[in-house]
Amino acid sequence: MPSSVVRIGLLGCGVVGQGFLRLLRERERLIRDSVGATLRVTRVAVRDPAKHRECDLTGIRVATDPLAVANAEDVDLLIELIGGESMLEPVRAALQRGISVVTANKHLLAVHGGELERLAADSKSTIRSEASAGGGIPVLQALEHGLRTEHFQFLVAILNGTTNYILSTMERDGRDFAEALQAAQSLGFAESDPTLDLSGADTAQKLAILVRRAFRMDVAYGSIPTEGIIGMELEDLRQADRFGYTVKLLGIALLNSEGLDLRVHPAFIPKRYLLAAVRDEFNGIYLRGEATGSMLFYGKGAGALPTAQAVLGDVIVAAREFVAGVRFLGAAEKHEPERRLPLDAVRTKYYLRLIVEDRPGVLAQVAACLGGTNVSVAQMFQAEGIRGEASITILTHEARDRDVREAVKGIAKLPAVRKTPRAVRIFDI
């Protein structure tokens, strides 16, 4: 007989967990009609049970041990919203019992995604993670269902709302990096310690999850060449505008005959691109497939309610399966062997900005460094010298990434160079 109640264990009751409980309460009738049963949270694990929360936990057993919740007999479905490596054991425990899991834990999926999916298949359960890679954007569901058999060649995405807000604020308001970061923190778009976002690591984790779905290839996110936006200056965004570009932190996955070109870094992109219009805390995921052509997924990549809605969507699907007795959706999907194109071999254009002594012969020295590694200049602009210094902006033709980086190292060693050169890739495909 189908169950009339699906009992939920919830790990974490922060802003997303509270948002989920709010949606569960406000949409109770719609959810019940959709699932065919009532969803009831029976247990919650939190770090501090005494902490005040903007939600009613009456009738719910509140404890501090996530593993105990994962193993509880009155839990039919586990939701994991604490995050981090420490949640691996509770998630494993639930899957081993045949309990399906919904998680927003991008670290867990980026590092252990393959193992957890195999474990779910072996135990006739499922693990769903829509909220892990795009907040409220339903891209993983699209890749898992409607686009499951598509062959993708191209995925380029803005996956971090914090860095996108900072870059948008710098560009729009003329604020420097520190001011834009402070604004992001005051609005709740950036953590008090924003290192994971600013370093590009958050984007790399999400990119690894998307690559697993879109290209059916397991990639260790720690192996993805990653650069963040730390050190980006307002003048770089002004120069981007001068040449018809805007600056975004991109997660890039391009598949060709040489392998998968996979990287995370800030990039100049043409203003005509759809991704150039993705501003502030919004995310955008641009895909190009063999049959479907180009498509853009756009929306809020973070925030309590957008993320909670993504969690709820996964919970409804998992609860439907539980009520219907559908506990096994097939074997774990076989993935392609990893074929990577090394960053050294990637061919790309570059933006370079140099602060040099304003005297004759310096340009010739810079040109010699570039020419010595087979890097040619496409455009150049020199600002009027101030206090004996000149600012030189160079856009290169396409060249091997390794060759451009070697040229920049050589330029940095020139006696006339006053400051470490800025080097940003140009993404124009």
From TrEMBL:
<dbReference type="InterPro" id="IPR016204">
    <property type="entry name" value="HDH"/>
</dbReference>
<feature type="active site" description="Proton donor">
    <location>
        <position position="206"/>
    </location>
</feature>
<comment type="pathway">
    <text>Amino-acid biosynthesis; L-methionine biosynthesis via de novo pathway; L-homoserine from L-aspartate: step 3/3.</text>
</comment>
<dbReference type="InterPro" id="IPR002912">
    <property type="entry name" value="ACT_dom"/>
</dbReference>
<keyword id="KW-0028">Amino-acid biosynthesis</keyword>
<dbReference type="InterPro" id="IPR045865">
    <property type="entry name" value="ACT-like_dom_sf"/>
</dbReference>
<dbReference type="GO" id="GO:0004412">
    <property type="term" value="F:homoserine dehydrogenase activity"/>
</dbReference>
<dbReference type="InterPro" id="IPR036291">
    <property type="entry name" value="NAD(P)-bd_dom_sf"/>
</dbReference>
<keyword id="KW-0486">Methionine biosynthesis</keyword>
<feature type="binding site">
    <location>
        <position position="106"/>
    </location>
    <ligand>
        <name>NADPH</name>
    </ligand>
</feature>
<feature type="binding site">
    <location>
        <position position="191"/>
    </location>
    <ligand>
        <name>L-homoserine</name>
    </ligand>
</feature>
<comment type="similarity">
    <text>Belongs to the homoserine dehydrogenase family.</text>
</comment>
<dbReference type="InterPro" id="IPR019811">
    <property type="entry name" value="HDH_CS"/>
</dbReference>
<dbReference type="Pfam" id="PF01842">
    <property type="entry name" value="ACT"/>
</dbReference>
<protein>
    <recommendedName>
        <fullName>Homoserine dehydrogenase</fullName>
        <ecNumber>1.1.1.3</ecNumber>
    </recommendedName>
</protein>
<keyword id="KW-0560">Oxidoreductase</keyword>
<keyword id="KW-0791">Threonine biosynthesis</keyword>
<dbReference type="GO" id="GO:0009088">
    <property type="term" value="P:threonine biosynthetic process"/>
</dbReference>
<dbReference type="InterPro" id="IPR001342">
    <property type="entry name" value="HDH_cat"/>
</dbReference>
<dbReference type="Pfam" id="PF00742">
    <property type="entry name" value="Homoserine_dh"/>
</dbReference>
<dbReference type="Pfam" id="PF03447">
    <property type="entry name" value="NAD_binding_3"/>
</dbReference>
<dbReference type="InterPro" id="IPR005106">
    <property type="entry name" value="Asp/hSer_DH_NAD-bd"/>
</dbReference>
<dbReference type="GO" id="GO:0009086">
    <property type="term" value="P:methionine biosynthetic process"/>
</dbReference>
<comment type="pathway">
    <text>Amino-acid biosynthesis; L-threonine biosynthesis; L-threonine from L-aspartate: step 3/5.</text>
</comment>
<dbReference type="GO" id="GO:0050661">
    <property type="term" value="F:NADP binding"/>
</dbReference>
<keyword id="KW-0521">NADP</keyword>
<feature type="domain" description="ACT">
    <location>
        <begin position="351"/>
        <end position="425"/>
    </location>
</feature>
